[in-house]
Amino acid sequence: MPLPLPLPLPQKTDILVIGSGNAGLSAALSAAQTIPTLRVTVIDKSPISWAGGNSYFTAGAFRTVHNGLHDLLPLVNNTDATQASRN
Ligand SMILES: Cc1cc2nc3c(=O)[nH]c(=O)nc-3n(C[C@H](O)[C@H](O)[C@H](O)COP(=O)(O)OP(=O)(O)OC[C@H]3O[C@@H](n4cnc5c(N)ncnc54)[C@H](O)[C@@H]3O)c2cc1C
């Protein structure tokens, strides 16, 4: 069921997170998971359709791990192993 937006601000909160980007939502989630009884509120100055910060605009590669060039080269088409190995 969709939330009625914008939500009214609560009268009280234990943690107020300003900004609903990746950093803010991660902080809010971490706080709520660490102490589930905390009242966590996230506010953002953007229009509701833009909530979520710049993550909306990303290419989707997000906090990835790799083990070096052999993992990365298949993802790109503008270089080869020799060129990519140069300092
Ligand atoms: C075009 C583009 C492509 C990208 N591609 C990638 C990618 O592929 N992979 C990757 O890892 N990263 C990518 N990034 C970077 C990534 O999006 C950012 O590093 C990340 O989203 C930053 O998160 P953040 O929470 O720090 O800030 P933001 O996402 O900028 O969030 C900040 C939030 O705070 C709000 N805010 C600001 N001031 C106030 C205020 N005074 N009161 C209330 N709210 C406020 C803003 O409205 C916003 O919602 C890309 C960025 C862009 C712009």
UniProtKB/TrEMBL annotation:
Name this protein carries in UniProt: FAD dependent oxidoreductase domain-containing protein
Residues annotated as domain FAD dependent oxidoreductase: 14-66
InterPro entries in alphabetical order: FAD-dep_OxRdtase, FAD/NAD-bd_sf
Pfam families from the UniProt entry: DAO (PF01266)
Coiled-coil annotated spans: none
Superkingdom: Eukaryota
Organism: Penicillium hordei
